Amino acid sequence: MTANPSSNRRSFLRGAMAAGVGGAVTTASAVAPAALHTIPAARAVPPFHGIHQAGVADPPPDGAQGITASFDVIAENPAELTDLFRILTERARLLAAGGPPAAVGITAPPADNGVLGPDLPENGPVITVGVGASLFDERYGLSGKRPAGLTAMPMFPNDNLRPAWCHGDLSLQLTAADADVCVHALRDITRATRGAMQPRWRMNGFVSPPRPSGTPRNLFGFKDGIANPGSVDFGRLVWAGTGEPAWAAGGTYQVIRLIRMLVEFWDRVAITEQENMFGRVRDTGAPLSGNHESDLPDYSDDPTGLVIPLNAHIRLANPRTPDSAGSQILRRSFNYDRGNDDAGNLDQGLIFQCYQRDPHAQFEVVQRRLLDEPLVDYISPFGGGYFFVLPGVRDAADFYARALLT
């Protein structure tokens, strides 16, 4: 007699929930791992339980490693979807806490893949989980619960989006001080959730340590994320607010943009032209009108763009007017290096990530201001998506998306 595929999947999920084990990693059409550079960094790991998930308010540590991934959910029904989020929570909680893996019988597969040795480190990965608009289709009866601003990421002018690298039902951000901690966590999670979700696309990244100090640099050599809002403004700019479903309280919108940087072309550009395109001094990060990266440019003193050009990146992205104050975003980006492309060119760039209260009133407003800025000749956005980062897991009895699914 032929086994029922749905029944097999359900049995697998429930067995994985009980034992914390799964199967082999599923291959995705756009999974292209890159070399991860290990730079040890001490840090205080944020707690797993809380109103908000870790990894949003918490900046990655200096020299952090990361994996940004998107998954397609293949659970058959709402019950299997709930099982998926329970299992995902259980694995994430255990990975974050560290300690020895569960004991298994001598004939069973090992409970852990062993990449990190016999015991999991206590400074486990920071794990951030989001959901895409496609999860709220007719499959699971969630269409009436979709967050108000959650849509598929549109194609913007100057984009070169590739479908296999876009969107997804679920996003996963893994961040740690060491590359193998991220790799271990990805293998553990995909093993435990096999049969319920499968990788769609994935990119490995890293955060450069401060050189020589201050904000980390991107692969164009410029400091990235200097103008992030302070935590005092997170309630106004980052965390979901009024107009959202009740279950979404504590969550936030995540925008991911995979951006190829044409570094070999960029390296042939004069430094003065590079600095004019960004509006900052490359070495210090200071605005062209200042001396330190923390200096605020005063555009009222430079109305014609004599010092900071009118089309400079920082001036367009954040013109510092009363009207633009509400469109500020929280950047949490990673660099990537995938070796060489088929033509022998360096394949490097930015895993741009930002968090905000409303992607249409914030990210997209900024994106429209940046239309046809000079930098577009040196970058090629090819993937990413919009996701809603779920509210935090409150305690040991809670799980990701509980308020959404129950």
Automatic annotation (TrEMBL):
Entry's Gene Ontology molecular function annotations: heme binding; metal ion binding; peroxidase activity
Sequence ranges assigned to domain Dyp-type peroxidase N-terminal in this UniProt record: 60-206
Pfam families documented for this protein: Dyp_perox_C, Dyp_perox_N
Dyp-type peroxidase C-terminal domain residues: 215-393
Keywords (A to Z) from UniProt: Heme, Iron, Metal-binding, Oxidoreductase, Peroxidase, Signal
Keyword Signal: yes
Cofactor dependency: heme b
One cellular component term from this protein's GO annotations in UniProt: cytosol
N-terminal signal peptide: 1-30
Entries under SUPFAM superfamilies matching the protein: Dimeric alpha+beta barrel
EC main group: oxidoreductase
Superkingdom per UniProt: Bacteria
EC numbers for this chain: 1.11.1.-
Transmembrane intervals: none
PANTHER family in the record: DEFERROCHELATASE, DEFERROCHELATASE/PEROXIDASE
NCBIfam families xref list: Dyp_perox_fam
Family: Belongs to the DyP-type peroxidase family.
Protein name as annotated: Deferrochelatase/peroxidase EfeB
Name of the gene: efeB_2
